[in-house]
Amino acid sequence: MISKFIKLFILLFIFGTSTIFAADNDAKVKGNYKYDKKEGKPKVFIEGIHLDFDFMRRNMKFIDFVNDPAVSDVHIIINNRISGSGGQVYSLMYTNKTFENLSDFTLTCTTASSDTHEERRKIITNAISMGLMPFVNQTEVSKKISVRYRGKEETQQVQTDDPWNNWTFRGDFNGSVDLEESRKNFNYLYNLRADKVTEDWKIRNNGRTSIRTREYISNGESYRSENNSNYATSSIVNSLSPRWSAGAFFSYYNSNYSNTIYSVSLKPAIEYNIFPWDVSDRKVFTMAYYIGPEWKKYYEETIYDQTQENLWEHSFRLDLQLIETWGEIEAGLNATNYLHDFSKNRVTFDTEVSVRIVRGFAINFNFRLENIHDQIYLPKSEASLEDILMNRVKLPSSFELYTGIGLRVQFGSIYNNIVNNRL
To answer: Where are the domains of the chain?
Structure first.
């Protein structure tokens, strides 16, 4: 009886020991599989905004730049938005393709409106590099990386004192002159902005003046065309919740090209975003509704026998934006009409699609279509041939269409690390 217990004990001991060794060996195998350094540099594909790739290649020697996302280890999409101070906030979206134990994530960096090109490219390149460190750490290249802190040893918390209370102001002037013996073109554009943007409020004010002058000389006779327009907008929007926003929009418009002495509107609006705004750097799907009065006065009597009128207008708009590793989609649908006559309406659909079909083959598509039935400002008098040729007046049209398509085919070497700016 005792011998049977001894034999049973020996069998259990051998079984338990073998199990422990097997588990230990399995853990070692798994450990080697998960934590061994990967050979070579991380292969990185970067797309999005216009970047200084030459500068990045010179200063990011620890990665291999590839020109096809299908062969990359890391796919980075960079998107940018205007900040409240007029600078840029860049969203750097990292998609892990091959590394284990690392997930996708997004980083941000900010540049000021006063930053030079040199300062901006340094900020963006440094931010991209910092985000790539977890991936570099999984490769043999990590043995050649060192981190240096250049700040002071002791830092004191300094409270921010903003005498402008988040207000930013900007003025722009653009002008061009194109002269020939029998033709002269002058174009001037003035633009002023005053904005305040916080987490809860967004206040924007904008004023613009455009002057376009064309003069032609033929057989000693001079023909002159001058199109002037003035545009001013003011809006205030409050963030009600992570998805709801509400605001009011004021606008003023004047244009001799559109036979309008003035057009003034005041429209409250409400907006809902299907996705929370904190993921707006990747996907946005908003629905907005505007309604309010408009006051109009015209240079000439219109086709509806009006020299001035007071109207109510409302509009509904859908906007979709998706940014993924396979491409990008932007689409908008806007429907507007006057409440006194629903036949006076306009429907606009615009979209821009960029899709990577397969490795090395991508398609870009642009499309804009307007169904127009609200040109109530058109003058009653017929436009002369001279007015049409000189582009002095807006012509009647029931639609406007624009479309464009592009294809990109690429094959050959996937690497693109060399910088060569020679002739």
So the answer is: 1-36, 43-142, 240-409
Residue-by-residue DSSP string for 63-121:
SEEBS-GGG-SEEEEEEEEE-TTSSEEEEEEEEESS-TT---EEEEEEE-TT--HHHHH
SS3 414: coil
Architecture of 43-142 per CATH? 2-Layer Sandwich (3.30)
Question: What contacts 367, CB < 8 A, 6 or more positions away?
Answer: 349, 350, 351, 352, 402, 403, 404
Q: Is the pTM above the cut of 0.85?
A: no
Are the CB atoms for 255 and 229 separated by under 8 Å?
yes
Phi, psi of 97 (to 5 degrees): -105, -30
- For 42-83, the pLDDT digits (tens) are 999 988 777 788 888 888 889 988 888 888 899 998 888 887
The CATH class for the domain spanning 240-409 reads mainly beta
DSSP string, 317-372: EEEEEEEETTEEEEEEEEEEEETTEEEEEEEEEEEEEEEEEETTEEEEEEEEEEEE
Which tens digits make up the pLDDT trace of 275-284? Answer: 887 777 678 8
